[in-house]
């Protein structure tokens, strides 16, 4: 979750229900370090700590210990501080989970923009959910095709290409790579018989 959702009472509720989260810690959060773990600076980690909040309101809303992980992204040089209630995963894995959240957001953006469900075939809950699940399956198949083909085309470009060639009998990889269609060989002996 993003920092806009930093509700420390909610963090405690999630932890009490056994739900794990990874978010960024606000820079003005007041806390004390209870325990420090060894880190691998080669992986970009700057700290791995167990903390307790000390702010008057925060410590009342979230009286549990959480994990604070510092990470410097070598690609862009930016430093991040993550907060999680998961103590078993490695600190680098926690940083990777947060980094991967952008892919989840892109997935939901794609689902909202591309399936173009203008009207539902049925109006029952099952009919609506089935149509949405089919749209999600199409997305996953397209993502797999993109991964397998190692193309630089966007998901939208692949979808448009498939829509335009829906009734064409062509090799899928040749279509995606932009190869011209192969014309079937004409057997001259068959023409002579006609």
Order of helices and strands: HEEEHEEHHHHH
CATH architecture of the largest domain: 2-Layer Sandwich
Number of helices: 7
The quaternary structure here is single chain
Distance between the termini: 70 Å
What's the pLDDT, averaged over the residues?
Answer: 84
- Rg is 26 Å
Low-confidence regions: none
Question: In CATH, what is the class of the largest domain?
Answer: Alpha Beta
Q: In the residues, how many domains can be counted?
A: 2
Describe the strand arrangement of the main beta sheet, using strand numbers.
1-5-4-3-2
The CATH topology of the largest domain comes to Ribosomal Protein S8, Chain: A, domain 1
Number of strands: 5
Largest sheet: 5 strands, antiparallel
Question: What does it look like?
Answer:
With 194 residues, the protein is an alpha+beta fold. It folds into two domains: 3-100, Ribosomal Protein S8, Chain: A, domain 1; 114-177, no CATH class. 44% of the residues lie in helices and 16% in strands. Strands 1-5-4-3-2 form a five-stranded antiparallel beta sheet, covered by helices on one side. A hairpin with an 8-residue loop joins strand 2 (31-36) and strand 3 (45-53). The longest helix has 25 residues, at 125-149. It is elongated. The model has no long low-confidence stretch (mean pLDDT 84).
